[in-house]
């Protein structure tokens, strides 16, 4: 496969990455607003709503797992940084690929185990939010799936099958 064939895929993954970044940022802001509302309600109104803490925790899991996936795409996950400094270019490529394979396995484990948790708890109810219990594990599945997707992209990029993809996510 050539870079020209996969270029639309790279553009699509850029969009997915930006969307995940925006959703994580919006989740962080919403969580901050909910916690401020909870503090205001508790200390000013003397009546704290029970759903704000659960909703804040749910939002936090979403932005953590989405942010972790973005970190994988941008190469901020754990790696062999000390060994990379002394390795040959070939050894560096092998170590980076090995690191990516470990991340790919971890992401796949997140998806598989997360789906088991979602299915096993879907029939329960989160009392404070009145949502199916499995919804609390959906961020694990989504983050793992994105980690796998972005890691495969990095591996293909390293093999030379895909053009470099790390454009500025802020733009």
Task: Give a written overview of the molecule.
The protein is mainly alpha-helical. It has one domain. Helix content is 73%, strand content 2%. It has helices at residues 3-43, 51-73, 81-86, 89-121, 138-159, and strands spanning 125-126, 131-132. It has a two-stranded antiparallel ribbon with strand order 1-2. The model is unreliable at 1-5 and 165-171 (pLDDT under 50).
What keywords describe this structure?
single chain, 2% strand, two-stranded antiparallel sheet, disordered C terminus, 2 strands, elongated, mainly alpha
Describe the structure in brief.
73% of the residues lie in helices and 2% in strands. With 171 residues, the protein is mainly α.
Radius of gyration based on Cα positions: 20 Å
From the structure provided, what is the oligomeric state, counting identical versus distinct chains? single chain
Spatial sequence of strands, sheet with the most strands: 1-2
Number of strands: 2
Query: What does the overall shape look like?
Result: elongated
Please identify the structural class as seen in this structure. Answer: mainly alpha
Helix content: over 70%
Spans of at least 5 consecutive residues with low confidence: 1-5, 165-171
Distance between the termini: 28 Å
Q: Give the topology string: H per helix, E per strand.
A: HHHHEEH
Biggest sheet features: 2 strands, antiparallel
Number of domains: 1
Please tell me the overall pLDDT: 86
- If helices are DSSP runs of H or I spanning 4 or more residues, what is the number of helices? 5
Classify the beta-strand content into a percent band. Answer: under 5%
């Amino acid at each position: 496969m050539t870079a020209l064939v996969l270029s639309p895929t790279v553009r699509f993954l850029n969009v997915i990455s930006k969307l995940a970044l925006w959703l994580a940022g919006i989740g962080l802001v919403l969580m901050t607003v909910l916690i401020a509302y909870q503090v205001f309600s508790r200390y000013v109104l003397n009546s704290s709503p029970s759903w704000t803490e659960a909703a804040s925790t749910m939002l936090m899991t979403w932005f953590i797992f989405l942010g972790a996936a973005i970190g994988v795409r941008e190469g901020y996950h754990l790696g062999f940084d000390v060994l990379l400094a002394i390795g040959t270019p070939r050894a560096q490529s092998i170590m980076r690929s090995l690191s990516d394979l470990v991340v790919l396995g971890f992401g796949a484990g997140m998806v598989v185990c997360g789906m088991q948790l979602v299915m096993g708890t879907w029939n329960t109810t989160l009392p404070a939010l009145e949502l199916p219990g499995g919804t609390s594990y959906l961020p694990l599945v989504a983050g793992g799936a994105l980690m796998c997707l972005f890691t495969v992209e990095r591996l293909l990029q390293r093999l030379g099958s895909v053009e470099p993809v790390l454009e500025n996510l802020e733009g």
